[in-house]
Sequence to fold (378 residues):
Amino acid sequence: MQQAQGRNNAQSLFSIENIPSDNQIRNLLDPISPELLYPLFSGALEELESYGHLDAYRFWENYLLIPIDGTEYFRSSKIHCNNCSVSKHKNGKITYSHKVLTPVIVAPNNPKIISLEPEFITPQDGSIKQDCELNAAKRWIERNEQLAKKRAIILGDDLFSREPFCKLLLSKGFHFILVCKPDSHKTLYEWVDSFEKTNDISTFTTRKWNGRFHEHWNYRYINHLPIKDGEDVLEVNWVEITITHTGTKEILYKNAFMTDFPIDLTNAAIIVEAGRARWKVENENNNVLKTKGYHLEHSYGHGKQFLSSVMVTLNLLAFLLHTFLELVDSKYQAIRKTLAARKRFFHDFTTLTKYLFFNSWEHMMSFMFEQLKIPKTG
Fold:
């Protein structure tokens, strides 16, 4: 387009004066820490809150639900850098990988998630041990304790329901609802068993229609259980949900959660609903980034320092800003609704910018709006 028309969309839409080569882009980004991009995540969140768009994510008693989960985005037996995690296998082979913790804000009945800044699982200075999701989560909490002031509840799987992490959350002002499995919490479940023998577990059941058949939702809960064996240990509150088919009696779902919230008849179901929302970080964030057009696992370039993690951060930032536009821009909302699949939207965008010149984003959005013959409202 530059050769044919003397102008191009990189200049008009992205303010790029001189178009660099792929290699130059990689060379420029490799030494840059992804942390330099993190303020953009918090800035977008503050904008959403200031205009009231965060209200749609407020759950029970105005809490925000923040599930945390790790995902792998790179794996190789040859390519590696100093930030790779290293796995040594019994057959002598070595695998190098990159993983990242991807916290998000979710609401049970809201299909859109809000991406927060990531935390990369990488070798840490002064440590001979491999980094892990739990340690990455601790660093993320330390760096984002300001979110506690927004009334945040941290959600997570059984990996995170450990006393040191729970104490850290409480010390920073966070609440928590975390999966709690019998195999990893033997002392706690010994107490549960003892209460069960004396019929001292609070229980209630509700009946629900799922659109095809009725289900029984059976809740059991106990307060003030020790999270592990020992003296002066943290006490948590435990709730279990078992969903069965009313006809066949088949167990459709069973899980248990620990929380710092005192549990009673009025909030047990709410706490379970919040705890179950943790799956959204995997289904509506990580899976979307990998399979719906963002290509999170694509090798944009590995680099020797930070290139791989910078590319992932830019990917997460793109997802956040697309969500931002869906929440605040009516024209963008209408175009995305018409082009329902993300991949189709991205494909149309790529095609248009290849063949047509747009002097601004507004020009491009208006063109798409008109060509798709979207009815004007208001």
About this structure: The first strand starts at residue 64 and ends at 67. Residues 65 and 153 are 5 Å apart (CA to CA). The chain has one domain: 49-329.
